[in-house]
Amino acid sequence: MLLEEKSCVIVCAGELEGAVIERRPGELLIAADAGIRYLEEAGMEPDLIVGDFDSLGYTPESGNVIYHRPEKDDTDTMLAVREGFERGFRSFRIYAGLGGRLDHTVANLQTLAFIAENGGRGYLVGGKSVSTVIKDSSIAFGGGRSGMISVFCQGGDAEGVTIKGLKYELEDAVLTASVPLGVSNEFTGREALISVRSGRLLVVWQQDNAAETK
Predict the structure, then answer these.
(1) pLDDT in tens, 15-62
(2) Beta bridge partner(s), residue 92
(3) CA distances, 54 to each of 32, 69, 148, 164 (Å)
(4) CATH 3.40.50.10240: which residues of the chain?
(5) Lower Cβ count inside 10 Å, N or C end of the chain?
């Protein structure tokens, strides 16, 4: 699927959208609040269960539970990400973080920005798409891919944006958060590269297109 270093895998309480939760050897598996239900259905045992458990409706009785009071600044997803960072992980694969409540979807997109700002790479994996945020860096896709891919500025202006190998290319351009110039681009079957010299980009592509990051 995603070709990346060992990840911290986080399962949230949003819509799984038919995505299959994957866990490779050595990866840390965290259930965020009611995300534990998806893992129970899949017969998977989390390393940690994190949250205030308002969505779940009860606090699990287990030695790997990290309970937080409902009056908190972070979402349960963000709490899980912080736990991953504390344990040395810099790559995050987040399932069931899309759909459901729009405010939580937006919060999870901002969580991708938090990961990027702290030197990591996060992926929101849904049944139909994968989303990531890159900061002052690039993401590369191997050849043979088809389907849609979109690139958005996230936050302040993204400068030095270069897109190669997709249907619509850019060279050293500036993307802003107020104009969705990069929406609905397409894979062409060639290797593709998206890079930004300064700023953040939100990149969204169809889930069946794997990515190798640089």
Answers:
(1) 888 889 999 999 999 999 889 999 999 999 999 999 887 787 777 788
(2) 8, 122
(3) 11, 10, 36, 45
(4) 8-127, 135-213
(5) C
